[in-house]
Amino acid sequence: MSETETTPTIQLPDPAELIVSNSPHIRDNHNIKKIMFTVVLSLLPACLAGIWFFGFAALKVLLLTTVSCVVLEEGWNKLAKKPSTWKDGSAMVTGILLGMNLNAGVPWWVCVLGAVLAIILAKQLFGGLGYNPFNPALVARVGLLIGLPEIMTTWNVPTAGKMMADVTTAATPLGEGVKNGVFSLGDLFAGNVGGCIGETSVVALLVGGALLLYFKLIKWQIPVAYIGSVFAITGVAYLIHPETMHSPVYHVLSGGLLLGAFFMATDMVTSPMTHKGMLIFGLGCGVMTSAIRLWGAYPEGVSFSILFMNALTPLIDRSTISKPFGYVTPGKGGAE
Amino acid sequence: MSNQTRKFKGGVHPNDSKALSKDKPIQDAPLLESYKVIMHQNIGAPPELVVKKGDVVKKGDLLAKAGGFVSVPLHAPTSGTIKMIDKCPGPTGMSVPSIEITADGEDEWGAPFVPMSDWKNTEPKMLKQRVWDAGIVGMGGAGFPAHVKLSPPEGKTIDTLILNGAECEPYLTADHRLMLEQAEDVALGAAIIARILGLETAVIGVENNKPDAIQALEKVAGKYGVTVQGLPVNYPQGAEKQLIYAITGREVPIGKLPMDVHCVVQNVASAVAIADAVVKGRPSIERITTITGKSVVNPGNWRLRLGTPVEKALEFVGGVNEQPAKLLLGGPMMGIAQSSLGVTVMKNTSGILLISRDEVSQYSSDPCIRCGRCVEVCPMSILPATISQAVENKRFDWAEELNVMACIECGSCSYVCPSRRPLNQHFKRAKIEIQAELRKKK
């Protein structure tokens, strides 16, 4: 007591209010919300391109899937008496990705059904964010594709800039054989071709991918290994049968490859964490995608490939553990 | 000795916040009325008490003698009377034995050691004995007895002596000021340690964010046959294994010691303590501590006696402007949070740091989203995310398989985790569990 009286002007911390916890005591300012909203930002160019080419119909699908996913996420949390998670942005990302994976002409209930598959079946039943082994948006796309093949393989004709244009349906770049006319690379680059809302515009996807790389949300390994292996394999096929095969450049620029390689295969939760693992993952996706495109019953194989490699992720992670700093091979012993 | 500096893999770049105190010259703390010296200040065996209540001691007199080889003696920080041998709050939150001395105000030296001003011709064995007698430990934080590091067992050869002046922890500037103001003592200490080890030279490693300290050291280095090496600014550059790698390119094998790669590392403050012990005959009874934080009225670097209560240390700097969130001994990355102002300064108290409320968010952790940021920054190249999940599932065997024992607890993984998972805490727990299991087997 006497001590405090001698120094009355000095304020000292109140020990009762000191927090005691483990080190480190400072953290950088990253959090899940920031990551998810940066992903949303990176998805925007491709979404805007989709809306430009497919009109308000595309906007309607994107809004429906996004709102459905967020509502379902929160509804599930309420029912399961779990803490609210919709604000972390992950359901929003899933919703946008789901919308980007649908044709602009799908009926409203397909959007809602897709959201149920993505959020409830693929995500929450496995334990929610971080615990889902498969990419939720892709589970929904593949589920819908298998269950509703008619609806899921009808594609709107792009009507660049005409937001309310009458909808006609058309073929996709990969759906058509080489003989029935090939889309120009310029149209592919801009996105002026039939397909899902978010997968057609190469330039917008590249901008988004560059944003993801810039913000360090993805590493180069998966996109490069994925796109590189598709280019190499379809390139070899093209060299052997140039008359019946699309060129490797055409393969890379069409279908869902770029959307898949930059935004779906790189999903943090469902892809490997080690650099070596990422290369293997991307390579596996590329081999599968090429095989389906060249020899499979479906014209496109990006979704199936990524889901298949998702299943292998734990195995890949386990077999690509890097050697720790100062690792000594057992039996060799010493430091010499 | 190559002058090429290697960058270790991983690491983080927190805001260093050193500007608060880096330009504040070291001040001598005024003499207090009493000191509570914590008995056990070193890693290893506790020392054995040699005084009793009521004894009159002079400054530098022995309070406790080494309790084994891996143990160091403890000396009186000032002259006075032993008031009580009691318990006081320790840095880990538990009460620990301490010796309370009521100062007589004279601050009069007893008869500690004979100065060895002719250390260049003194037998290395005698010098090493002096280091032990003076009670010197690793003052960078670990508190490992210095003489043990200087005693490589039969068959282990040492070819490199490294002085650790990296001071990579944010906020701390005690070593910075010491190197700047007492560059000659640092170099002298290095030369003495080199002689003990039978070496001709030593390297002082300093992070490049202290150019003035590097300059000051370079001015005197030649005279003592030591070299100064600037190091990239990357936390944890001052971790022993990362420092050795940066300077020599050698990797200390997991579970082994620097001497296994022919290196000895000593903190720069320990080197100065060694120089004082040898040349001036003074035991280790004080240290330089950075007292800082955004809420501290007048942050600075202070020469504090062992046993100075944190409460008093905070009065030296004018107290606080506002209630801080945390009181730490050490830096923000590896320091220990305190619940009492009664804890006292020890030989390894490099900082007394008050963390403000806006710097700590009381967070709950979210599930791991496998973003891999922890894997990127881990300086030991282990998989923090996976190990943390193993620990959550009480699979300590799996954690061990994933090399959790290699973890140096630098906290870089927790620092970057967007889900704010308690990764570092998980690893500390895993290590304790694994060691307990090992003991059971024995």
Topology readout:
The complex is a heterodimer of chains A (336) and B (442).
Chain A: H1 2-6, H2 32-54, H3 56-79, H4 90-100, H5 108-123, H6 136-147, H7 149-152, E1 155-156, E2 169-170, H8 185-190, H9 202-214, H10 221-240, H11 248-253, H12 257-264, H13 275-295, H14 302-319
Antiparallel strand pairs in A: 1-2
Chain B: E1 27-28, E2 34-38, E3 48-49, E4 56-57, E5 62-65, E6 74-75, E7 80-89, E8 95-103, H1 124-133, H2 146-149, E9 160-165, H3 174-181, H4 183-197, E10 202-207, H5 211-224, E11 226-231, H6 240-248, E12 263-267, H7 268-280, E13 286-293, E14 300-305, H8 310-316, E15 326-329, E16 336-338, E17 351-355, H9 373-377, H10 384-392, H11 396-401, H12 412-416, H13 423-441
Parallel strand pairs in B: 1-14, 9-10, 9-12, 10-11, 13-17
Antiparallel strand pairs in B: 2-8, 3-5, 4-7, 5-6, 7-8, 13-14, 15-16, 15-17
Textual characterization of the structure:
The complex is a heterodimer of chains A (336) and B (442). Helices cover 56% and strands 1% of the residues of chain A. With 336 residues, chain A is mainly alpha-helical. Chain A has a single domain, classed as Ammonium transporter fold. Chain A is globular and about 85 Å long. Among the domains of chain B are: 160 residues, Rossmann fold, CATH 3.40.50; 69 residues, no CATH class. In chain B, 28% of the residues lie in helices and 19% in strands. Chain B has 13 helices and 17 strands. Chain B has a 6-stranded mixed sheet with strand order 1-14-13-17-15-16, with helices on both faces. A 4-stranded antiparallel sheet of chain B has the order 2-8-7-4, with no helix packed on it. In chain B, helix 4 crosses helix 7. Classes of the chains: A mainly alpha (336), B alpha/beta (442). At the A-B interface, helix 2 of A face helix 8, strand 15, strand 16, helix 12 and helix 13 of B.
